[in-house]
Amino acid sequence: MLSDSFLKRLDALALRMRHPAAGGSGGLRRSRALGSSVEFSDFREYAVGDDIRRVDWNAYARFEKLFLKLFMEEQEQRVHLIVDASASMDFGKWEPARQLAQTLGYLCLCGGDSVTVYTLGGGGERHTRPLRGRHCYPELSAFLESAQPQGRAMIETAVPALRLAGGRGASVLIGDLLDGWEQAVLSLLYRKQETSVLQVWSAAEWDPQLEDAAELVDSETGERFLTAGGYEALRRYRETARAYVEEVTAFCRARGVCHGLIIPEEPFEEQLIRALSAAGLVA
Amino acid sequence: MEWLNPAGAWAFLGFLPVIALYVLKRKARRTPVPSLLLWKKTEERTRQNRPFQRLRSQLLLWLQLAMVALLSLALMRPVTAGGLKGECLFVFDLSASMQAVDGEGLSRLEDAKRQALALLEGMRDGDAVTVLAAGQSFSPLVSRSTDHALAARAIRELKAGNGGADLSGAMSLATAMRREAPGMEIYVFTDSAAQIPPEANLRAVGEGAPNVSLMDMSLQPEANTAFVRLVSRGGNAQVEVECYADGALCDVRAVSLADGESRGVLLTVPEGTRSAMARVSPGGALAVDDTRWAVEQSRRQYTALLVTESNVFLETALRLRPELNLVLASPQDAQAVAGCDLYIYDGVLPETLPETGAVWAVNPPEAVLGLRPGEAVQGDGILRAAAEGEAAEICEHLLLSDVAIRSFRPLSGGTPVLLSGGEALLALSDGNGRRAAALGFDLHDSNLPLKADFPVLVQNLLSWLLPDAAASVEAAGCGAPVSFVLDARCLSAYVETPDGRRINLEGNSFSDTDAPGVYLLVETLAGGQVRETAFALHIPPEESDTLTVPASTEGATVRETSGSQEWTGWVLAVLFAVMLLEWEVSRRGTGV
After folding, report:
1. DSSP state, residue A165
2. Count of domains forming chain A
3. CB contact under 8 A, B33 and A219
4. Which residues, in sequence order, are bridge partners of residue A278?
5. Is the pLDDT of residue B82 over 50?
6. From CA B516, how far away is CA B488, in angstroms rounded?
7. Other beta carbons within 10 Å of B234
């Protein structure tokens, strides 16, 4: 659970969406739909059945034609927080990932958006109901607190299978992106989701320390792998890891997906805000 | 740059384990990781999973190889200085005991050869080698040759003799050769505790194997017996002694011997046996002393002329010798008798001495064959015997106590035998193969004839004046040259060796005596008469001691004292520095 002081700091921030909200019920987020907000949008000629309270009488005096003033509709954004809860997240990554989801959820709830949290792990897919309003934060937080990383997430098939409510929306995928993430991202984009990817790696994953030869065991598959260890092997690993991250970044950039790499440090809350800002998710 | 220990180059094989450490993969520790994805991607680039990895240039690897190289160099003991060479001199003991077979079924000489060939193989090309064979005499078989194949062949062809070994002479030669080549290493391969110079390396061969040997044998045909003495060294022994009379088996005895025991065995031989051979089995480590021979000794008859007015003492003493035919003559007839083996003149001398035969002059009036009497002097009453050489043999068993002499004429020239007050009473001369003795006083002026010493002195003197051919070889052994005392009438002579060869005698010396067994001296005398003298030769008794073997010793190398500079210490210092550097590099993990 995020601390109260941190939540107060988050009150000053808002989740930034690049696209207008679409299709949600009344909310605070600007949408493409025309409605009753104070924000002027356009004029159009009067048609039978239109609300005469919206007729611009000044324009009628000048042009002797009836024009209606159109205003923007403010709608809520449907945000989907998809969190990888597979066993691979249990290497110092789960707690940061959970805090990320809580932070984003809180910002969404405070911004009048609808938030649904999904966890994908060995126990299958779990999700909350669409949550609205700040008062739902405890529920969101409790849901995440109750999840534990285990088993295989199989996000390449689990994400396409998610039943995302309301068509268009925004989805944030939080995980280590070590397996099947490309299909998950493409699936979200296909479903008109404004997609963001937050890649959480542990420091040991980014810069491992193996002084000697080691038999590595995959936490999800149990597969074993022999490595020589030592300086040379680690040097090659680091090269590979950085190349992999660059590959993920390039993939996301090419598809207009926000991407952020988070390698947890202490204190993590400070780093968290910086990382979300750098990824363009908060403003 | 020279190497004191080129065999240290084997340490360069240490490169192999060091490289193997880099080629072989280390034992893995099980470590759980979130995913193998990145590790597999890494492996695709480096192919880590193969049992061997490509040998890459790493600082740690080079440092470790440098450590191995430095260690190898240190073991090889590099030296610099002029004049140093890896020259070696091998001295081989070729005495009979080197034929002894120890535990491994290899004779001591074969073991010595094996050690020497191994040393020779370790020598560098161009290093000179000398092979010195020390038998009864010593000679360099290969002298400072750089042809190692030649030296190896000479070593392989070495054979142990049946005699002793003149190791001290060989060592003198080796030491002299080393003075010419200061860097020369001397290796002595022997089983005897010979004194060798401190700078020489003693390579003792043999393990002190037990042995049973036949030490003495004599034949008494008149008693139909042969006596043989057995000695056991190195443990109790149950042996069987066979006796062959003139080649036919005649007696077999079982004998039990305790460790170190010497026991005589009386064997029965048939009547008329001329030679007997005894053989012991099992004979232990040394085979050549398992057989012993004995031949019938037939004494030669001699004729002696005694010219005297009257000397009962002398006549009586001379008649004690059975093979001596004594002819008495008065001084007037001294010149009439010729052809005798010995002429004894008592107080007189003929006008001209006979041309052949030995001469004993008692109280001669004038010089005889180089022995000159002086003016008569009073003795001091104390007779002293000479202690060396032939004189000592003649004085053997003499007490010479309470012998009184009224006066004597000191003798000059020749070898003094008995002395009184520093002057010679009895002297010998041996010129041109003719033996002579002179006694410087009248026997009637002394109580010597009344003493027990007198007959002993006469017999000893007769043995020297009338040497017997067989008696002259009684003490001879294998390998040593034998000097015969041939009959004065001998025209030609040859020796028949145990293997049937006939070797004509040139002079009276015979040196082809290496084979143990029965030899036959055949003399052809004037008038066609043939005289045969058989004698047996055996290995020297000390060679049968196969139990005493010295310990190997390392000699003080000349290289260390010749002012040369050895760099081993510096190499070790650099090795230590590289070791520290390697440790630091390894600790910091900057090995690439």
Report:
1. T
2. 2
3. yes
4. none
5. no
6. 28
7. 18
What count of CB pairs under 8 Å joins A to B?
Answer: 106
* Partners of residue A234 in chain B, C-beta under 8 Å: none
* Nearest neighbour of B29 by CB, restricted to A90, A215, A225: A215
Note whether A82 and A174 are same-domain residues: yes
Question: Looking at residue A36, what is its pLDDT?
Answer: 58
**pLDDT beyond 60 at B591:** no
Q: What pLDDT, on a 0 to 100 scale, did the predictor assign at position B84?
A: 38
Closest CB to A225: pick one of B25, B40, B56.
B40
Nearest-neighbour CA in chain A from B578: distance (Å): 21
pLDDT band at B46 (very low <50, low <70, confident <90, very high): low
Whether residue A142 sits in one domain with residue A89: yes
Nearest chain B residue (CA) to A89: B34
In a domain, A4, yes or no: no
Is there a domain that residue A19 lies in? no
Q: Which domain holds residue A118?
A: 78-278
Question: What is Dmax (Cα atoms) for chain B?
Answer: 140
Residues A169 and A243 in one domain: yes
Identify the closest residue of chain B to A222 by CA–CA distance: B32
Distance from CA of B15 to the nearest CA of A (A): 21
A121 and A37 belong to one structural domain: no
Closest partner residue to A232 (CB to CB) among B37, B49, B592 is B592
Q: Do A184 and A129 share a structural domain? A: yes
Between chains, do B34 and A215 touch, taking CB under 8 Å as contact?
A: no
Chain B residues touching residue A217 (CB < 8 angstroms): 30-33
* pLDDT for A25: 57
Kindly report the CATH class assigned to B469-541: mainly beta
- Shortest distance between the Cα of B567 and any Cα of chain A, in A, equals 37
Q: According to CATH, what is the number of the domain B302-465? A: 3.40.50.880
User: Lowest-confidence range among A192-196, A229-233, B449-453?
Assistant: A229-233
User: With an 8 Å Cβ cutoff, are A227 and B40 in contact?
Assistant: no
- Residues of chain A found within 8 Å of residue B53, distances taken between Cβ atoms: 228
Give the per-residue pLDDT at B167: 84
SS3 letters for A49-115? CCCHHHECHHHHHHHCCCEEEEEEEEECCEEEEEEEECHHHCCCCHHHHHHHHHHHHHHHHHCCCEE
pLDDT of residue B243: 92
Q: Are strands A114-121 and B517-525 parallel, antiparallel or unpaired?
A: unpaired
Domain annotation covers residue A8: no
Res. A160: pLDDT tops 50: yes
Q: For residues A160 and B490, give the distance between their C-alpha atoms in angstroms, rounded to a whole number.
A: 134
Chain B residues whose C-beta sits inside 8 Å of any chain A C-beta: 25-43, 45-46, 48-49, 53, 56, 58, 589-592
Task: Kindly indicate the confidence band of residue B127, based on its pLDDT and cuts at 50, 70 and 90.
Answer: confident
State which residue of chain A sits closest to B41, comparing Cα positions.
Answer: A240
Residue pair B514/B163 in contact by the 8 Å Cβ criterion? yes
Ranges for all domains in chain B classified under CATH 3.40.50.880? 302-465
CATH 2.60.40.10 residue ranges of chain B are 211-296
Q: Which residues of chain B neighbour A240 with C-beta distances below 8 Å?
A: 38, 41-42, 45
A174 with A271, same domain: the answer is yes
Indicate whether A110 and A205 sit together in one domain: yes
Name residue, tokens 């040259």: B481
Does ipTM top 0.85? no
Helix (H, G, I), strand (E, B) or coil at A272: helix
pLDDT grade, residue A85 (50/70/90)? very high
* Cα of B190 vs its chain's centroid, Å: 11
Neighbours of B235 (CB within 10 A): 15
CA of A246 vs chain B CAs: smallest distance (Å): 13
Q: Do B48 and A212 touch (CB under 8 A)?
A: no
All residues of chain A having their beta carbon less than 8 Å from the beta carbon of residue B27 are 213
**Residue ending a domain, choose from A59, A75, A91:** A75
Shared domain check, A175 and A66: no
Is the distance from CB of B221 to CB of B273 less than 8 angstroms?
Answer: yes
Instruction: Give me the CATH code for the B211-296 domain, please.
Output: 2.60.40.10
B471 has a pLDDT exceeding 50:
yes
Does the distance separating the beta carbons of A218 and B48 come in below 8 Å?
A: no
Q: Where in chain B is the domain with CATH 3.40.50.410?
A: 88-208+548-563
Give a yes or no: residue A17 inside a domain: no
